[in-house]
Protein backbone atom coordinates (compact mmCIF):
# COMPACT_ATOMS: atom_id res chain seq x y z
CA UNK A 1 0.00 0.00 0.00
CA UNK A 2 2.58 2.53 1.16
CA UNK A 3 4.91 1.68 -1.69
CA UNK A 4 2.08 2.03 -4.18
CA UNK A 5 1.19 5.47 -2.85
CA UNK A 6 4.76 6.62 -2.97
CA UNK A 7 5.14 5.28 -6.46
CA UNK A 8 2.16 7.31 -7.51
CA UNK A 9 3.47 10.48 -5.92
CA UNK A 10 6.83 9.92 -7.59
CA UNK A 11 5.16 9.64 -10.96
CA UNK A 12 3.44 12.95 -10.49
CA UNK A 13 6.66 14.74 -9.63
CA UNK A 14 8.43 13.15 -12.51
CA UNK A 15 5.76 14.22 -14.93
CA UNK A 16 5.92 17.92 -14.00
CA UNK A 17 8.91 18.13 -16.38
CA UNK A 18 8.78 21.21 -18.70
CA UNK A 19 7.83 19.23 -21.80
CA UNK A 20 4.68 18.05 -20.05
CA UNK A 21 3.80 21.56 -18.93
CA UNK A 22 0.08 21.24 -19.67
CA UNK A 23 -0.40 18.50 -17.14
CA UNK A 24 -1.21 20.58 -14.07
CA UNK A 25 -4.09 22.37 -15.80
CA UNK A 26 -5.57 19.08 -16.89
CA UNK A 27 -5.51 17.51 -13.43
CA UNK A 28 -7.67 18.01 -10.35
CA UNK A 29 -6.41 20.41 -7.65
CA UNK A 30 -6.21 17.81 -4.80
CA UNK A 31 -3.36 16.14 -6.64
CA UNK A 32 -1.35 19.34 -6.66
CA UNK A 33 -1.93 19.79 -2.94
CA UNK A 34 -0.85 16.23 -2.30
CA UNK A 35 2.26 16.73 -4.33
CA UNK A 36 3.27 19.79 -2.35
CA UNK A 37 2.63 18.00 0.93
CA UNK A 38 4.67 15.06 -0.13
CA UNK A 39 7.35 16.94 -2.00
CA UNK A 40 9.84 16.75 0.87
CA UNK A 41 9.21 13.04 1.26
CA UNK A 42 9.57 12.51 -2.45
CA UNK A 43 12.81 14.40 -2.64
CA UNK A 44 14.10 12.41 0.30
CA UNK A 45 13.24 9.17 -1.40
CA UNK A 46 14.83 10.30 -4.65
CA UNK A 47 17.91 11.49 -2.81
CA UNK A 48 18.10 8.23 -0.87
CA UNK A 49 17.59 6.11 -4.00
CA UNK A 50 20.16 8.01 -6.02
CA UNK A 51 22.65 7.64 -3.19
CA UNK A 52 22.16 3.90 -3.19
CA UNK A 53 22.51 3.79 -6.96
CA UNK A 54 25.60 5.98 -6.86
CA UNK A 55 27.10 3.83 -4.14
CA UNK A 56 26.41 0.68 -6.17
CA UNK A 57 27.85 2.20 -9.32
CA UNK A 58 30.96 3.32 -7.44
CA UNK A 59 31.48 -0.13 -5.97
CA UNK A 60 30.89 -1.77 -9.33
CA UNK A 61 33.27 0.63 -11.10
CA UNK A 62 35.94 0.14 -8.46
CA UNK A 63 35.61 -3.61 -8.84
CA UNK A 64 35.78 -3.34 -12.62
CA UNK A 65 38.93 -1.27 -12.42
CA UNK A 66 40.54 -3.86 -10.22
CA UNK A 67 39.36 -6.86 -12.24
CA UNK A 68 42.17 -8.86 -13.83
CA UNK A 69 40.85 -8.06 -17.30
CA UNK A 70 40.88 -4.32 -16.74
CA UNK A 71 44.37 -4.50 -15.26
CA UNK A 72 45.51 -6.63 -18.19
CA UNK A 73 44.06 -4.07 -20.60
CA UNK A 74 46.54 -1.58 -19.17
CA UNK A 75 49.50 -3.84 -19.84
CA UNK A 76 48.46 -5.13 -23.24
CA UNK A 77 47.75 -3.49 -26.56
CA UNK A 78 44.15 -3.98 -27.65
CA UNK A 79 43.18 -7.64 -27.72
CA UNK A 80 39.70 -8.94 -28.55
CA UNK A 81 40.47 -11.89 -26.28
CA UNK A 82 40.24 -9.61 -23.24
CA UNK A 83 36.60 -8.96 -24.15
CA UNK A 84 35.86 -12.63 -24.44
CA UNK A 85 37.72 -14.47 -21.72
CA UNK A 86 37.74 -13.63 -18.03
CA UNK A 87 41.17 -13.97 -16.53
CA UNK A 88 41.95 -14.69 -12.90
CA UNK A 89 45.20 -14.13 -11.04
CA UNK A 90 46.76 -16.56 -8.65
CA UNK A 91 49.98 -16.77 -6.69
CA UNK A 92 52.10 -19.61 -7.99
CA UNK A 93 55.43 -20.77 -6.62
CA UNK A 94 57.68 -21.90 -9.43
CA UNK A 95 59.89 -24.96 -9.27
CA UNK A 96 63.15 -23.78 -10.71
CA UNK A 97 65.58 -26.35 -9.35
CA UNK A 98 68.71 -26.98 -11.36
CA UNK A 99 68.21 -30.72 -11.62
CA UNK A 100 64.53 -30.90 -12.57
CA UNK A 101 63.29 -31.85 -9.15
CA UNK A 102 60.34 -32.01 -8.63
CA UNK A 103 60.06 -33.48 -12.10
CA UNK A 104 58.68 -31.43 -14.97
CA UNK A 105 58.23 -33.12 -18.33
CA UNK A 106 58.96 -29.82 -20.10
CA UNK A 107 62.49 -29.82 -18.74
CA UNK A 108 63.19 -33.44 -19.56
CA UNK A 109 65.46 -34.72 -22.33
CA UNK A 110 63.77 -35.34 -25.69
CA UNK A 111 61.54 -38.39 -26.01
CA UNK A 112 58.22 -39.03 -27.72
CA UNK A 113 56.45 -38.24 -24.41
CA UNK A 114 58.32 -34.95 -23.99
CA UNK A 115 57.57 -34.05 -27.61
CA UNK A 116 53.89 -34.77 -27.11
CA UNK A 117 53.77 -32.58 -23.99
CA UNK A 118 55.49 -29.69 -25.78
CA UNK A 119 53.46 -30.02 -28.97
CA UNK A 120 50.39 -29.78 -26.80
CA UNK A 121 51.32 -26.71 -24.74
CA UNK A 122 53.01 -24.94 -27.65
CA UNK A 123 50.06 -25.29 -30.00
CA UNK A 124 48.64 -22.18 -31.63
CA UNK A 125 44.89 -22.63 -32.01
CA UNK A 126 43.51 -20.52 -34.84
CA UNK A 127 40.71 -18.21 -33.70
CA UNK A 128 38.18 -16.02 -35.49
CA UNK A 129 37.86 -12.29 -34.80
CA UNK A 130 35.75 -9.44 -36.17
CA UNK A 131 36.72 -6.75 -38.65
CA UNK A 132 36.39 -4.04 -35.95
CA UNK A 133 38.85 -6.01 -33.84
CA UNK A 134 41.36 -6.02 -36.70
CA UNK A 135 41.04 -2.24 -36.89
CA UNK A 136 41.33 -1.81 -33.12
CA UNK A 137 44.46 -3.96 -33.13
CA UNK A 138 45.85 -1.38 -35.53
CA UNK A 139 45.97 -3.61 -38.59
CA UNK A 140 44.58 -3.30 -42.10
CA UNK A 141 41.72 -5.72 -42.85
CA UNK A 142 42.67 -5.48 -46.53
CA UNK A 143 45.76 -7.49 -45.75
CA UNK A 144 44.48 -9.70 -42.94
CA UNK A 145 43.35 -13.10 -44.17
CA UNK A 146 39.57 -13.34 -43.96
CA UNK A 147 37.82 -16.51 -42.90
CA UNK A 148 36.14 -17.97 -46.02
CA UNK A 149 32.38 -17.74 -45.62
CA UNK A 150 32.20 -21.45 -46.41
CA UNK A 151 33.76 -22.04 -42.99
CA UNK A 152 30.46 -20.98 -41.45
CA UNK A 153 31.63 -18.12 -39.23
CA UNK A 154 29.74 -15.43 -41.13
CA UNK A 155 30.98 -12.39 -43.01
CA UNK A 156 33.87 -10.08 -42.19
CA UNK A 157 35.67 -12.52 -39.94
CA UNK A 158 39.44 -12.86 -39.74
CA UNK A 159 41.88 -15.51 -38.58
CA UNK A 160 43.93 -14.76 -35.49
CA UNK A 161 46.21 -16.64 -33.11
CA UNK A 162 47.20 -15.64 -29.61
CA UNK A 163 50.70 -14.13 -29.45
CA UNK A 164 51.36 -15.79 -26.10
CA UNK A 165 50.97 -19.19 -27.69
CA UNK A 166 53.28 -18.14 -30.51
CA UNK A 167 55.88 -17.28 -27.86
CA UNK A 168 55.52 -20.73 -26.32
CA UNK A 169 55.81 -22.19 -29.82
CA UNK A 170 59.03 -20.22 -30.20
CA UNK A 171 60.37 -21.42 -26.88
CA UNK A 172 59.75 -24.94 -28.13
CA UNK A 173 61.62 -24.16 -31.34
CA UNK A 174 64.59 -22.83 -29.38
CA UNK A 175 64.37 -25.93 -27.17
CA UNK A 176 64.58 -28.14 -30.25
CA UNK A 177 67.65 -26.28 -31.47
CA UNK A 178 69.14 -26.83 -28.00
CA UNK A 179 68.73 -30.58 -28.64
CA UNK A 180 69.88 -30.25 -32.23
CA UNK A 181 71.31 -33.74 -32.59
CA UNK A 182 68.00 -35.27 -31.64
CA UNK A 183 65.67 -33.06 -33.61
CA UNK A 184 67.56 -31.89 -36.66
CA UNK A 185 70.77 -33.76 -37.28
CA UNK A 186 69.10 -36.81 -38.89
CA UNK A 187 67.10 -34.76 -41.40
CA UNK A 188 68.98 -31.45 -41.76
CA UNK A 189 72.60 -32.44 -41.26
CA UNK A 190 74.99 -30.45 -39.09
CA UNK A 191 73.89 -27.09 -37.66
CA UNK A 192 76.59 -25.30 -39.65
CA UNK A 193 74.79 -26.15 -42.91
CA UNK A 194 71.30 -25.46 -41.65
CA UNK A 195 69.01 -24.27 -44.48
CA UNK A 196 68.59 -20.49 -44.41
CA UNK A 197 64.90 -20.61 -43.59
CA UNK A 198 65.44 -22.88 -40.58
CA UNK A 199 68.19 -20.62 -39.32
CA UNK A 200 65.85 -17.65 -39.83
CA UNK A 201 63.15 -19.39 -37.84
CA UNK A 202 65.61 -19.90 -35.01
CA UNK A 203 66.71 -16.26 -34.86
CA UNK A 204 63.14 -15.06 -35.33
CA UNK A 205 62.13 -17.03 -32.26
CA UNK A 206 65.03 -15.80 -30.16
CA UNK A 207 64.12 -12.25 -31.17
CA UNK A 208 60.41 -12.43 -30.34
CA UNK A 209 61.13 -14.04 -26.97
CA UNK A 210 63.55 -11.25 -26.12
CA UNK A 211 61.02 -8.67 -27.28
CA UNK A 212 58.36 -10.14 -24.99
CA UNK A 213 60.69 -10.45 -22.01
CA UNK A 214 61.96 -6.90 -22.30
CA UNK A 215 58.53 -5.44 -23.13
CA UNK A 216 56.98 -6.95 -20.00
CA UNK A 217 59.91 -7.95 -17.82
CA UNK A 218 59.25 -9.99 -14.72
CA UNK A 219 59.63 -7.60 -11.80
CA UNK A 220 59.94 -10.33 -9.18
CA UNK A 221 63.19 -10.66 -7.28
CA UNK A 222 65.40 -13.64 -6.58
CA UNK A 223 67.12 -14.21 -3.25
CA UNK A 224 70.32 -16.07 -2.44
CA UNK A 225 70.95 -18.89 0.01
CA UNK A 226 73.95 -20.67 1.48
CA UNK A 227 74.28 -24.28 0.38
CA UNK A 228 76.06 -27.04 2.22
CA UNK A 229 79.44 -27.67 0.64
CA UNK A 230 79.36 -24.49 -1.40
CA UNK A 231 81.27 -21.40 -0.41
CA UNK A 232 79.35 -18.89 -2.48
CA UNK A 233 75.70 -17.89 -2.13
CA UNK A 234 73.33 -19.75 -4.42
CA UNK A 235 70.31 -18.18 -6.16
CA UNK A 236 66.87 -19.38 -5.15
CA UNK A 237 64.85 -19.19 -8.33
CA UNK A 238 61.81 -20.85 -6.73
CA UNK A 239 59.99 -17.54 -6.73
CA UNK A 240 56.37 -16.65 -6.26
CA UNK A 241 54.66 -15.25 -9.30
CA UNK A 242 51.27 -13.64 -9.79
CA UNK A 243 50.00 -15.80 -12.63
CA UNK A 244 47.17 -15.67 -15.11
CA UNK A 245 45.13 -18.82 -15.51
CA UNK A 246 46.93 -19.96 -18.63
CA UNK A 247 45.58 -23.50 -18.42
CA UNK A 248 41.97 -22.36 -18.59
CA UNK A 249 42.75 -19.68 -21.16
CA UNK A 250 44.46 -22.22 -23.40
CA UNK A 251 41.60 -24.69 -22.97
CA UNK A 252 39.14 -21.95 -23.89
CA UNK A 253 41.06 -21.10 -27.06
CA UNK A 254 41.32 -24.76 -27.99
CA UNK A 255 37.56 -25.11 -27.66
CA UNK A 256 36.96 -22.15 -29.99
CA UNK A 257 39.57 -22.90 -32.60
CA UNK A 258 38.85 -23.30 -36.28
CA UNK A 259 39.18 -27.04 -37.01
CA UNK A 260 42.59 -27.79 -38.52
CA UNK A 261 41.00 -30.05 -41.14
CA UNK A 262 39.10 -27.06 -42.50
CA UNK A 263 42.25 -24.98 -42.74
CA UNK A 264 44.28 -27.78 -44.26
CA UNK A 265 41.54 -28.75 -46.67
CA UNK A 266 40.97 -25.25 -48.04
CA UNK A 267 42.42 -24.11 -51.37
CA UNK A 268 44.21 -20.91 -50.37
CA UNK A 269 44.90 -19.95 -53.97
CA UNK A 270 41.31 -18.79 -54.41
CA UNK A 271 39.68 -15.62 -53.11
CA UNK A 272 42.99 -14.12 -52.03
CA UNK A 273 43.12 -10.57 -50.64
CA UNK A 274 45.90 -8.02 -51.05
CA UNK A 275 49.42 -9.44 -51.07
CA UNK A 276 52.61 -8.14 -49.50
CA UNK A 277 55.67 -8.24 -51.77
CA UNK A 278 57.80 -11.37 -51.65
CA UNK A 279 60.62 -11.28 -49.10
CA UNK A 280 63.98 -10.49 -50.70
CA UNK A 281 65.55 -13.46 -48.96
CA UNK A 282 63.08 -15.85 -50.52
CA UNK A 283 63.57 -14.64 -54.09
CA UNK A 284 66.86 -16.39 -54.79
CA UNK A 285 67.55 -19.55 -52.84
CA UNK A 286 71.22 -19.67 -51.90
CA UNK A 287 73.23 -22.86 -52.05
CA UNK A 288 72.67 -26.06 -53.94
CA UNK A 289 69.75 -27.94 -55.37
CA UNK A 290 68.94 -29.75 -52.14
CA UNK A 291 67.89 -26.50 -50.59
CA UNK A 292 65.82 -25.58 -53.60
CA UNK A 293 63.33 -28.25 -52.68
CA UNK A 294 63.05 -26.90 -49.14
CA UNK A 295 62.59 -23.43 -50.52
CA UNK A 296 59.76 -24.49 -52.81
CA UNK A 297 58.02 -26.25 -49.96
CA UNK A 298 58.50 -23.40 -47.54
CA UNK A 299 57.30 -20.86 -50.04
CA UNK A 300 53.91 -22.50 -50.25
CA UNK A 301 53.26 -22.11 -46.57
CA UNK A 302 54.54 -19.89 -43.82
CA UNK A 303 57.96 -20.13 -42.28
CA UNK A 304 56.27 -21.74 -39.31
CA UNK A 305 54.51 -24.37 -41.31
CA UNK A 306 57.54 -26.31 -42.40
CA UNK A 307 57.98 -29.85 -41.22
CA UNK A 308 60.78 -30.20 -38.73
CA UNK A 309 60.76 -33.92 -38.54
CA UNK A 310 59.06 -34.53 -35.23
CA UNK A 311 55.38 -33.97 -35.70
CA UNK A 312 53.71 -30.74 -36.74
CA UNK A 313 54.90 -27.57 -35.09
CA UNK A 314 53.24 -25.06 -37.35
CA UNK A 315 51.60 -21.87 -36.30
CA UNK A 316 49.31 -22.19 -39.26
CA UNK A 317 48.95 -25.84 -40.15
C1 LIG B 1 56.11 -27.46 -7.85
O1 LIG B 1 56.23 -28.77 -7.36
C2 LIG B 1 55.26 -29.15 -6.42
C3 LIG B 1 55.64 -30.51 -5.91
O2 LIG B 1 55.76 -31.45 -6.93
C4 LIG B 1 53.89 -29.13 -7.11
O3 LIG B 1 52.89 -29.47 -6.19
C5 LIG B 1 53.63 -27.76 -7.66
O4 LIG B 1 52.44 -27.76 -8.40
C6 LIG B 1 54.77 -27.34 -8.57
N1 LIG B 1 54.57 -25.95 -8.97
C7 LIG B 1 54.43 -25.61 -10.24
C8 LIG B 1 54.25 -24.16 -10.48
O5 LIG B 1 54.45 -26.40 -11.15
TrEMBL record:
This protein's record includes keyword Zinc-finger: no
Location of region: Disordered: 267-317
Annotated Pfam families: UstYa
The entry's keywords: Membrane, Transmembrane, Transmembrane helix
Gene Ontology biological-process annotations: mycotoxin biosynthetic process
InterPro entries cross-referenced by the UniProt entry: UstYa-like (IPR021765)
Superkingdom of origin: Eukaryota
Comp. bias regions, Basic and acidic residues: 267-284
Annotated TM spans: 42-62
Family to which the UniProt record says this protein belongs: Belongs to the ustYa family.
Protein name: Tat pathway signal sequence
Naturally occurring in which organism (per UniProt): Trematosphaeria pertusa
Amino acid sequence: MKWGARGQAYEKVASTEPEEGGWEQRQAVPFVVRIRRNLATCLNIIFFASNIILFGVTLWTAKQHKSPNSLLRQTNAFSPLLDRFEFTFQKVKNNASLFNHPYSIYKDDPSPEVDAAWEDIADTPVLVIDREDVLKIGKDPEYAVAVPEEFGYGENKYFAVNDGQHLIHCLNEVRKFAYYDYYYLPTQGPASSLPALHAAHRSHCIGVLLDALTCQPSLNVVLFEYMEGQNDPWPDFDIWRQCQNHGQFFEWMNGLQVPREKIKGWDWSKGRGKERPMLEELKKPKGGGAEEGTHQEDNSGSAHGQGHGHGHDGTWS
